[in-house]
Amino acid sequence: MDEKDEQDAKGGGESTLTVLVAMGANAGIGVLKLVAAIFTGSAAMYAEAAHSVADTATEVLLLTALRRSDRKPDRQHPFGYGKERFFWALIAAVSIFVSGAVFAAYEGIRTMFGESEEQTLAWIAYAVLGVSFVLEGTSWLQAVRQLRNEARNDETTPLRWLRETDDPTVKTVFFEDSAALIGLLLAFGGVGLHQLTGSAFWDGLASVLIAVLLTVVAYILGGTNKGLLIGRQADRKTVYALRDALAERQEVEQVVDLLTMTLGTDQILLCARLDFDDALDAASLERACAAIDADLRERFPDIAEIFVEPVPRTDKAIRARVLDRYGTAGAERLRTGLQRDG
């Protein structure tokens, strides 16, 4: 097993652990919340039970994503199955909305505008919410631990890693658990205000707010996975490092065009159009392409496939496509390797 395989196995194992911890916590919490909802008649507790059901279903989908995305490339899928992780994570985001947010909104509106229901055995709700907070907190801490480790490995901040990551499993669990902790506080407030005022309106309002919270999380996660499924470029740091690695080779006169796409978690497709030294003959050009392939694979373990195309820098059609894609400033950075921060 080479270094990349070892890193992938370690990362995949930690992601699986994070998902399993979250799934176990949510399944147990969901049962407790449902029992509390039945005894207390609280709309917020019913909403939280639906929230836990949605989260548990999400974790099942994420485990499916982890298992299916690790399959090796084959004849029908020569670029591998990496994007399956993005697909199942997108379905998980839809699951959060459909099975969690919709039910919570319905239950909250029904309680707010229906006949007022008497609250009973509120202490059960408080006890379940307290236990749930501890269990959800344990799952959240595991997600934060992996988030920090991943950010440290990529030499970036946790917040930036969340914005740019191509691993939807960790991001999904982190946002899920964060929403779960906030949802528990909302439910606690709803139950407490219902007990203090005798009005079920506050209980229903808490349920509606939980629905809004789940909708926001589903929207964020759905947008992330949509972008990855469509075909997002590699992170800027990697793109510019690839550009510099190509430009510094003696055989290359200029990097004319550079395209990358995320094929899966830690899997990059690279297409490079290069203006080679005109003194190279056909055999030398072939050897140069092979050497570039080997060098880049060694320096950038995340690269899954490399395509190198020799082109003249003066080709107007290619130049026009580069300008259309990156703009004048981006094309100039590609050509010269100027300061690229931002």
From TrEMBL:
Keywords: Membrane, Transmembrane, Transmembrane helix, Transport
Cellular compartments annotated: Membrane
Transmembrane segments: 17-39, 86-109, 121-141, 173-194, 200-222
Transmembrane helix among keywords: yes
Domain Cation efflux protein transmembrane: 19-219
Membrane topology, as annotated: Multi-pass membrane protein
SUPFAM superfamilies membership: Cation efflux protein cytoplasmic domain-like, Cation efflux protein transmembrane domain-like
Entries under InterPro entries matching the protein: Cation_efflux (IPR002524), Cation_efflux_CTD_sf (IPR036837), Cation_efflux_TM (IPR058533), Cation_efflux_TMD_sf (IPR027469), SLC30A9 (IPR040177)
Organism superkingdom: Bacteria
Gene3D superfamilies: Cation efflux protein transmembrane domain
NCBIfam families: CDF (TIGR01297)
Entry protein name: Cation diffusion facilitator family transporter
Species of the source: Pseudonocardia charpentierae
